[in-house]
């Protein structure tokens, strides 16, 4: 029998729509018409169904044996053992010795249930998730300025009518390929501006009169933005009427940017004065202007302040909540948006409520049928949580759901050592990811096409994931796993296994919160209606936010002046280069999934270090030759890709690969003081060409 099911791609936040056709077990993917992707998919989407029947899939619970190998077990054996170890750990070392690490790829239902499970069944405050590595800086900036964090406060299609789009630190042409269709309007108006230290596929979209590429020194975007604000104010390009009616804080901003005159900005960023002025004028010219940020400017220790500066620029130009203009951040993971709303963040309860707010605690406790005092307080953010493994007072047991931290967390070798120091590690995954391979127990779970649920896309639109194929007999849904463990742990409240029922509960728990889903249900979503939150009961949702007011009590946006910190030691002195990290089209995140898709693995089998020909010549590096990339934390060994598409002082590594090619062996676990975001994008390294015999050992 052949069945076709309408669902969405498992990977990124664009959530491209697809039809999955199951013809007697052979599953094919076809793009489906939808506003974000208009029928298009990227290679990852096209090949996504291959993982359903991957020979590497785990098909029964796996228990580590005394000799270090894994052996299959029944679900009862595995769950009994986990429950017993969790109960013992809690009794012996306290509830906060148990940690939970979630992911932005989990459905809303799973993310919600994971947060509830941690607080009620484990009684721990120690829960956080990989979205801390992703959206935390932009989220903190949005909350601070607007009183609300929804990545794009407008539908993606609004961008079609823009004449100017400024993209700061995002390579959408490779990270969300169908998205570039929405840049066409700006390109034909000559107004696509891409800020990236590399000449990326996205930067190339500005060629032939379509716009301009600004190529600053990595990590200087905050100064660049302060310079733009300075020019906009000095050239009287601000929208004073808007500033007056809708914001607070402009005078302080004006004073704070006085020192960032264009020549000084040029000296720090390398961006010519002329280009800076042209850019400021273009942004103020009207005709539909949007400012978008990505991980390139947010994944820094000053990422919150940089995103805030981008918001300040948008506010003084009167772009936010007005027609045909806007500010937004491009959410990354499939459910990166919903995943940050329903309680897997350490300081959060469902509906984007604060766990420290007594009214929020009382509301959620009411839905859960527990006393508010039984909900633990705020925990600690991801980097700190991982750093506490094996430390006195830190976590001794960890449950991982939807993250591969050994590859994706900063200072990855320290994370590996921390995981090894745990008393007990449980990982739920489809595959032996590098993190699962270190676990005591691995529980195999259903993949996207085998489950129902909801995802909230980068535009804050809640969409349905639907079961298209039958899961292999030995795997289970995480909702079922939470239910079974909660039962064994005698947890209060209920842990439903039916996604629709869990969604209804989530909607009730979110009612009245900033991310209010209370008017939603599977029934409504299944009608195909576009559902943008906030969607309180009785409403029809909110495609466009901030049109009349911002979410602060007085309705005004906060212009929060931010200062640039002193620059670090300039790159290239004494052979020091700046390493930036990011993504390739073919691979997704830690690569745990896409490295197992033959077509993608063949296209990009390994990490390559991008460097400029002049730098390569100085170091004696040839294209395809082996290099060591080192700093105090570790060494990466890989081949070089010599390219003019990068600055002389900068090198680039993708972070999709494990072991000696893992970029996160080099990144530091310093974090942004506001958001807890680690510094992924700027690390100092030395590069050395390897001689024939050295490289021989590693080929
Ligand atoms: N193919 C693919 N697509 C993905 C993903 C994936 O892993 N692979 N992941 C998804 C997720 S979770 C996310 S978060 C998004 C991320 O999507 P993007 O933000 O587009 O991804 P990155 O490649 O991390 O970073 C974007 C760009 O930032 C630049 N950059 C680095 N440092 C700086 C800097 O200091 N200043 C500026 N201006 N730019 C800088 C890099 O050169 C890079 O081209 O992609 C999503 N889509
Ligand atoms: N150097 C550097 N490091 C980075 C970044 C960077 O730009 N540079 N970017 C950061 C960003 S933006 C992100 S989002 C993180 C992401 O990094 P990770 O958290 O490592 O992301 P994934 O590789 O997607 O890991 C998801 C894992 O969960 C599994 N999985 C997928 N869906 C489910 C599910 O529903 N349930 C369960 N139980 N498992 C599931 C997958 O098989 C995979 O093993 O990496 C961060 N790390
Ligand atoms: S752009 Fe993102 S959602 Fe669309 S097909 Fe590619 S990975 Fe999937
Ligand atoms: Mo991300």
TrEMBL record:
<dbReference type="Pfam" id="PF01568">
    <property type="entry name" value="Molydop_binding"/>
</dbReference>
<dbReference type="GO" id="GO:0003954">
    <property type="term" value="F:NADH dehydrogenase activity"/>
</dbReference>
<dbReference type="GO" id="GO:0016020">
    <property type="term" value="C:membrane"/>
</dbReference>
<dbReference type="InterPro" id="IPR006657">
    <property type="entry name" value="MoPterin_dinucl-bd_dom"/>
</dbReference>
<keyword id="KW-0408">Iron</keyword>
<dbReference type="InterPro" id="IPR050123">
    <property type="entry name" value="Prok_molybdopt-oxidoreductase"/>
</dbReference>
<dbReference type="InterPro" id="IPR009010">
    <property type="entry name" value="Asp_de-COase-like_dom_sf"/>
</dbReference>
<keyword id="KW-0479">Metal-binding</keyword>
<dbReference type="Pfam" id="PF00384">
    <property type="entry name" value="Molybdopterin"/>
</dbReference>
<dbReference type="GO" id="GO:0043546">
    <property type="term" value="F:molybdopterin cofactor binding"/>
</dbReference>
<keyword id="KW-0004">4Fe-4S</keyword>
<dbReference type="InterPro" id="IPR006656">
    <property type="entry name" value="Mopterin_OxRdtase"/>
</dbReference>
<dbReference type="Pfam" id="PF04879">
    <property type="entry name" value="Molybdop_Fe4S4"/>
</dbReference>
<keyword id="KW-0411">Iron-sulfur</keyword>
<dbReference type="GO" id="GO:0022904">
    <property type="term" value="P:respiratory electron transport chain"/>
</dbReference>
<protein>
    <submittedName>
        <fullName>Nitrite reductase</fullName>
    </submittedName>
</protein>
<dbReference type="InterPro" id="IPR006963">
    <property type="entry name" value="Mopterin_OxRdtase_4Fe-4S_dom"/>
</dbReference>
<feature type="domain" description="4Fe-4S Mo/W bis-MGD-type">
    <location>
        <begin position="2"/>
        <end position="54"/>
    </location>
</feature>
<dbReference type="GO" id="GO:0051539">
    <property type="term" value="F:4 iron, 4 sulfur cluster binding"/>
</dbReference>
<dbReference type="GO" id="GO:0046872">
    <property type="term" value="F:metal ion binding"/>
</dbReference>
């Amino acid at each position: 029998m052949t069945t076709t099911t309408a669902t969405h791609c498992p990977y990124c936040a664009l959530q491209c729509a697809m039809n999955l056709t199951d013809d007697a077990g052979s599953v094919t993917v076809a793009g489906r018409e939808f506003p974000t992707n208009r029928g298009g998919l990227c290679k990852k989407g096209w090949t996504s169904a291959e993982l359903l029947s991957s020979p590497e899939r785990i098909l029964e619970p796996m228990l580590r044996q005394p000799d270090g190998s894994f052996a299959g077990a029944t679900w009862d054996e595995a769950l009994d053992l986990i429950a017993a170890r969790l109960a013992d750990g809690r009794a012996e070392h306290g509830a906060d010795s148990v940690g939970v690490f979630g992911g932005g790829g989990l459905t809303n239902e799973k993310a919600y249930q994971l947060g509830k499970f941690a607080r009620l069944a484990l009684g721990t405050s120690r829960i956080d998730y990989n979205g801390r590595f992703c959206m935390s800086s932009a989220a903190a900036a949005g909350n601070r300025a607007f009183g609300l964090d929804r990545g794009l406060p407008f539908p993606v299609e609004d961008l079609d009518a823009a004449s100017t789009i400024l993209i700061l630190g995002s390579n959408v042409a490779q990270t969300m390929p169908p998205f570039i269709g929405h840049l066409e309007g700006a390109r034909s108006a000559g107004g696509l501006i891409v800020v990236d230290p590399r000449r990326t596929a996205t930067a190339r979209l500005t060629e032939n009169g379509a716009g301009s590429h600004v190529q600053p020194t990595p990590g200087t975007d905050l100064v660049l933005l302060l310079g733009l604000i300075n020019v906009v104010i000095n050239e009287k390009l601000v929208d004073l009427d808007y500033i007056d009616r809708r914001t607070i804080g402009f005078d302080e901003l004006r004073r704070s940017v006085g020192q960032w005159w264009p020549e000084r900005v040029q000296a720090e960023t390398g961006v010519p004065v002329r280009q800076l002025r042209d850019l400021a004028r273009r942004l103020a010219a009207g005709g539909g202007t949007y400012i978008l940020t990505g991980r390139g400017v947010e994944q820094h220790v000053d990422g919150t302040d940089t995103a805030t500066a981008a918001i300040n620029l948008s506010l003084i130009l009167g772009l936010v909540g007005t027609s045909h203009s806007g500010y937004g951040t491009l959410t990354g993971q499939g459910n990166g948006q919903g995943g940050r709303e329903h309680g897997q963040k350490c300081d959060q309860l469902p509906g984007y409520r604060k766990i420290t707010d007594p009214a929020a605690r009382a509301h959620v406790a009411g839905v859960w049928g527990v006393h508010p005092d039984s909900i633990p307080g705020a925990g600690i953010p991801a980097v700190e949580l991982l750093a506490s493994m094996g430390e006195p007072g830190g976590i001794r047991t960890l449950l991982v759901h939807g993250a591969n931290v050994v590859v994706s967390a900063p200072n990855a070798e320290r994370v590996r050592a921390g995981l090894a120091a745990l008393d007990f590690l449980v990982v739920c995954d489809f595959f032996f990811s590098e993190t699962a391979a270190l676990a005591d127990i691995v529980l195999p779970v259903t993949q996207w096409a085998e489950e129902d649920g909801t995802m909230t896309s980068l535009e804050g639109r809640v969409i349905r994931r639907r079961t298209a194929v039958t899961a292999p007999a030995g795997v289970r849904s995480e909702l079922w796993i939470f239910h079974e463990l909660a039962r064994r742990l005698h947890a209060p409240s209920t842990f439903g296994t039916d996604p629709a029922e869990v969604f209804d509960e989530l909607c009730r728990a979110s009612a009245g919160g900033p991310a209010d889903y209370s008017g939603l249900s599977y029934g409504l979503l299944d009608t195909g209606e576009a559902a943008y939150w906030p969607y309180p009961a009785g409403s029809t949702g909110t495609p466009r936010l901030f049109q009349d007011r911002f979410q602060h009590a007085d309705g005004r946006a906060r212009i929060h002046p931010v200062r640039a910190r002193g620059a670090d030691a300039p790159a290239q002195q004494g052979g020091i280069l700046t390493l930036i990290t990011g993504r390739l089209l073919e691979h997704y995140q830690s690569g745990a999934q896409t490295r197992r898709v033959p077509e993608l693995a063949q296209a990009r089998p390994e990490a390559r270090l991008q460097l400029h020909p002049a730098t390569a010549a100085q170091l004696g590096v040839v294209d395809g030759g082996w290099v060591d990339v080192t700093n105090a934390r570790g060494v990466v060994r890989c081949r070089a890709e010599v390219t003019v598409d990068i600055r002389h002082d900068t090198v680039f590594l993708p972070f999709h690969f494990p072991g000696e090619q893992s970029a996160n062996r080099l990144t530091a676990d310093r974090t942004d003081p506001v958001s807890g975001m680690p510094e992924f994008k700027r690390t100092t390294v030395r590069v050395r060409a390897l001689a024939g015999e050295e490289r021989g050992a590693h080929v």
